[in-house]
Design brief:
single chain, 887 residues, alpha+beta, Transferase(Phosphotransferase), domain 1, Rossmann fold, 6 domains, six-stranded antiparallel sheet, 49% helix, globular
Length: 887
């Protein structure tokens, strides 16, 4: 037999070619074993471990799921992390190859650095009683190789959908300076959602090859090797691009290039040998896709795509020509490419694909017509009963939404969005704003120990399509959430499998909702300390309640932002990681981890966590807003704006998406953009107060308080909030109508405003009116509240700038000057400079006030500098006047 690598006669009859000293016959065997490319070279026992076997005290064996050249692969339970993993046990005969294992450990160390939704996560390499093992993620899915075997070939659309995800994974691998070296259909897993995952990167191994990763070695299945790889030359990411080109050709045609059934792969043929385009075999393949495949298969690496990112972009351009439909693929590849598909825990191993009987690739493969999409918003219930049972009006919808979300194909609007609608809201308005087809609402009535729950499901036209009434104790009604969700789904023709999820205690749910209320500011002022307290209570009531742990992580992180106590950020990260261990598919857990990582300067890992959250909730605009706010808070406006816009694109009819982006532009000093977005909020929700309040703020910051007055009066008619009263007070203060300003500031404190700012503003208005005794009392309260805040977080320069203003108003100018100078240091924000300028102006320090006002204007802060009566003398300065005219 001739050597398949160099063509020399193989006279030894063995594996090693005497001419090129490479593994000739074993690769020839691989070519013949088209459906078992990594088949074991040594026999394996049928089952080394039976189900239930305790391995190393940490793992419980569930079942044997595969075997390959490396050894056996088991599905197992990691008892420490309480999750399912794949355990690959390394064949005993390979453990004696110390040099190979040393390099293998190095590869695993690199592999653990890759965290991406389209790459199998490697946990660790360990040893138990002399048996080496690798622990990896586990997926219920099918190898691409088996998918091709069952389908023959895939359509261009299906091919591009999978290939773009593989590109995303490859890009993440290449960014860690790892070349996969063994990319082939057996090493790509596809889960039930059509999400593709790359396996075994950096771990290509052949049992008869000692030269594991050293330069000059030949690894991987020969049919997919690049020309430079097959001849033992130096490799780079373009070698993986070639392999992916072979995979693309095979997906499109069901055969390997050049598809002439010759014994040698394309890489080992004469240099002039070419590959025909896939369209020669299947004419539906578009010419643009032909070009992509053939460029990947160029013999000269310099003529291929230089990176997986550029290949993904080329595939995206071909996809744009397809008829509009859903394609699971990353949106872009930057540092760690995002992916919109769902990613489960994955099984790594060259021949260890987990097979499921009757597996169907629902998003990508043809099959029986699926029922139409079902999207729903679950809104708060009307409540009648004692105050202590009022939490049920939101807990029940929260639980129902989670139960519906667990059903395949159901899209549930985030409760953070649907919670903003009252039980009396027109269902047609709710459906239109949230972009859903149905609205689920109703009433909860509590009498003594009995509760009655009445639910109604309406379509987007407001027609009732299902209703139900249940009675019982409140905990019993919560326990019926899964059954109610099944009834809703059956009413719209979904006929789901039985939903069975962990039950939660009513107390844990109540505390969780309280935590969310304080964390998000639902109907109350945000209070991170009270949010932490509530989430801790929920976790104490139910230690396995992953959403409560994710909420606790976010609350601890916000407290860290206030206090800069490093222990809090460590606790926050631990809680986020624990939430992920409990519920790997919980978007909020990955979101919390991403926020924490971003704050700690670990941008790449943060991006990976954010991408995971987006992949798990691809249609959740609330997730996008949260990520955007995280970027905005850390001074990364480009990323923030992109994600705010993505939230709008996902749910363009929902007012809050436009409102949040408007607030972002307002904080950036971009008043025109902010005003346009707030106008949109008003048009979408004319009966809500938020749009009017925020549009008025744009006028205030733009120096036109008169235009803000009618907007705020409208807001107060709709909803008399403390914020609207405060802002109207600013209007009257700027217009010199100090008595009306004092009235509104006092109304703000009576409406629930408890911050130092409200009392300080009241003091300002009373001082301007000459009512000094009342002003001193208001300032005293403002100073007390500010100092209390500063005891918690002495680094809060914004609050310190406010304290300087309150002290100045109270006539305590030496103290005011000290606080102003401390606050307005070299790194102070523009707003802090503005507050310090006001303090100096009140106390007669005009020169210092001018300097700080100029700095504030240069930093982008205008606030009410044009109208504040305390700054009249400052506005006369030529430099200040010139800058105000420029704005």
């Amino acid at each position: 037999m001739d050597c398949a690598l160099c063509g020399a006669p193989d006279t030894t009859g063995g594996d090693l070619c005497p001419a090129c000293e490479r593994l000739s016959s074993s690769f020839t065997r691989t070519l013949d074993q088209a459906r078992d490319p990594t088949g074991p070279a040594h026999p394996l026992p049928a089952s080394a471990f039976d189900p239930g076997h305790a391995f190393g005290g940490r793992y419980t064996i569930v079942e044997l799921v595969g075997a390959g050249g490396m050894g056996q692969v088991y599905k197992a339970i990691d008892k420490r992390l309480n999750r399912t993993v794949a355990l690959k046990l390394i064949r005993p005969g390979l453990q004696t190859r110390l040099d190979a294992l040393r390099r293998f450990r190095r590869e695993l160390s690199l592999a653990q650095q890759v965290s991406h939704p389209n790459v199998c996560r490697v946990h660790d390499l360990g040893e138990v009683e002399g048996a080496l093992y690798i622990s990896m993620e586990f997926v219920h899915g099918q190898a691409l190789e088996d998918l091709l075997r069952s389908m023959g070939h895939l359509s261009p659309r299906q091919t591009v959908a999978i290939a773009r995800q593989v590109c995303a994974g490859l890009q993440a691998v290449h960014e860690q300076r790892i070349v996969h070296r063994d990319l082939k259909p057996a090493n790509v897993m596809v889960d039930r959602a059509g999400h593709a995952v790359l396996m075994d990167f950096g771990m290509a191994y052949h049992p008869a090859d000692d030269r594991l990763t050293s330069e000059g070695s030949v690894l991987g299945t020969l049919a997919y090797l690049s020309p430079e790889h097959a001849r033992g030359q130096a490799l780079d990411p373009r070698s993986d691009i070639y392999a992916l080109g072979v995979v693309l050709f095979e997906m499109l045609t069901g055969r390997r290039p050049p598809a002439d059934d010759g014994p040698l792969p394309l890489a080992l043929r004469e240099t002039g040998a070419t590959c025909p385009p896939p369209s020669r075999f299947f004419p539906e393949v578009p010419a643009a896709l032909d070009e992509v495949v053939l460029r990947c298969l160029e013999r000269d690496p310099a003529r291929r795509f230089p990176s997986a990112a550029e290949l993904e972009q080329a595939l995206a351009r071909t996809a744009a020509a397809f008829p509009t439909t859903l394609i699971t693929a990353p949106r872009e590849i930057v540092t760690a490419p995002p992916s919109r598909g769902k990613r489960r825990a994955l099984l790594g191993g060259a021949a260890a694909a987990v097979l499921l009987a009757g597996f169907v690739l629902a998003r990508l493969l043809p099959g029986p017509p699926a029922p139409g999409p079902f999207s729903v918003a679950v809104v708060p219930l009307a409540h009648e009963g004692p105050r202590e049972s009022a939490y049920l009006r939101e807990v029940i919808p929260l639980v129902l939404g989670d139960a519906l979300r667990a059903a395949p194909g159901a899209e549930v609007a985030p409760f953070a969005s649907s919670r903003g609608f009252s039980p009396r809201e027109d269902p047609r308005s709710v459906a239109g704003q949230l972009g859903v087809g149905h609205v689920l609402g109703g009433r909860i009535t509590v009498r003594e120990s009995r509760a009655t729950l009445a639910l109604v499901l309406t379509d987007r036209e407001g027609r009732a399509v299902w209703s139900s009434a249940r009675a019982g104790a409140a905990p019993d009604l919560l326990a019926e959430a899964d059954g109610l969700a099944e009834a809703v789904l059956e009413a719209v023709g979904r006929r789901p499998p039985a939903l069975r999820r962990p039950s939660r205690s009513a107390r844990a749910l109540e505390l969780y909702l309280q935590g969310q209320t304080f964390l998000e500011g639902w109907d109350v002022e945000r209070n991170d300390a009270r949010a932490e307290e509530a989430f801790r209570g929920a976790v104490a009531a139910d230690e396995g309640f992953a959403p409560a742990r994710a909420g606790l992580a976010r609350a601890l992180y916000r407290l860290y932002r206030e206090t800069k106590d490093p222990r809090l950020v460590e606790q926050a990260q631990a809680e986020a990681e624990r939430a992920i261990a409990l519920a790997p598919s919980l978007p909020e857990a990955h979101l919390a981890l991403g926020v924490i990582r971003l704050a700690r300067g670990r941008s790449v890992e943060a991006a990976a966590a954010f991408q995971r959250a987006e992949a798990l909730a691809p249609a959740d605009d609330n997730v996008c807003r949260e990520i955007a706010n995280a970027y905005a808070s850390l001074g990364r406006p480009a990323e923030a704006e992109r994600l705010f816009q993505r939230a709008i694109d996902l749910r363009p009819g929902y007012w809050e998406n436009h409102s949040e982006k408007g607030v972002f532009h307002l904080q950036q000093g971009q008043l025109e953009q902010a005003g346009g977005l707030f106008d949109r909020v008003i048009s979408l929700r004319a009966d809500g107060d938020i749009g009017y309040v925020n549009r008025a703020t744009v006028h205030l910051w733009g120096g036109d308080p008169a235009a803000a007055e009618p907007l705020l009066l409208t807001a107060l008619r709709l909803n008399p909030t403390a914020q609207a009263h405060t802002n109207l007070g600013f209007v009257y203060y700027a217009l010199g109508r100090f008595e009306e300003a004092a009235r509104e500031y006092r109304a703000a404190t009576e409406s629930g405003a408890t911050g130092a700012e409200a009392y300080g503003s009241l003091g300002d208005a009373l001082r301007q009116m000459g009512r000094r005794a009342e002003a001193r009392a208001a300032y005293a309260r403002a100073i007390e509240l500010a100092e209390e805040r500063l005891r918690v977080n002495p680094r809060d320069d914004t609050m310190r700038g406010g304290l300087a203003m309150f002290l100045a108003g109270a006539g305590r100018c030496p103290e005011a000057g000290d606080e102003a100078r401390r606050a307005a240091g070299p790194a102070a924000s523009a707003d802090v400079d503005y507050y310090a300028a006001v303090a100096f102006a009140i106390c007669g320090g005009r020169a210092e006030a001018v300097r700080l006002a100029v700095r504030a204007l240069d930093g982008g802060s205008v606030a009410d500098l044009r109208t504040n009566p305390d700054l009249a003398g400052v506005r006369d300065d030529p430099e200040v006047r010139r800058r105000l005219e420029q704005d």
